[in-house]
Design goal:
Blueprint lengths: L2 H16 L7 E13 L4 E13 L4 E9 L2 E7 L7 E21 L4 E17 L6 E2 L2 E2 L4 E18 L9 E12 L3 E12 L1
Antiparallel strand pairs: 1-2, 1-11, 2-3, 3-5, 4-5, 5-6, 6-9, 7-8, 9-10, 10-11
Amino acid sequence: MNFSRWIMGAALLISAAAQAEEAKTERYAAVHSFNWEVGNNFADGSGLRLTLGHQLSEYLGVEVQGATGGGRDVTLYTADPVPVPFTAEARLDQMLGAYLRAQVPLGERVKVFGLFGYTKAKLEVESGAGAMTGSGQPLDRTAFTEAESGMSYGGGVEIGIFPGLLNDRLKLGLDYMVYLDGDVEAKATSVGLRLDF
């Protein structure tokens, strides 16, 4: 993604805020399943994502997200003159981000939204049985951490559920996010519940 596309996205979000006829301030919290993937199917897993947000107007808001959990066994290679494959578990230690949110209502109960912001993610790789091994030989450490950060974007839909319950403040949400889109790619699909307060 080039920088001019990020500038255009930010301009669209600001324009949406300017078109809001009146401020409708509300806060919200959400909990989602977090089905993530790093690299081209290098590692993936299912964890938990928490979101706190503040709706600045009918069309624009801000939110922070935090996620953790899930992982799988991966095959890596040592940096020796002769690379040696070894198996370890890669898991999401943490993902933190802050985002602008632009949304458009489609009727009374449905909203579509886009997110644009910044994410920092940390992936931990370790052997569950002591030192990592490669070709039957022990390696000199049991774990390492890879941290990356960068611009993020995505979108989704929210649907009001259970009319009349909790004053119509409960919503079902589904979104797809590209959290990192540089040397390391990270994306996720999430499904969960949002409560306005």
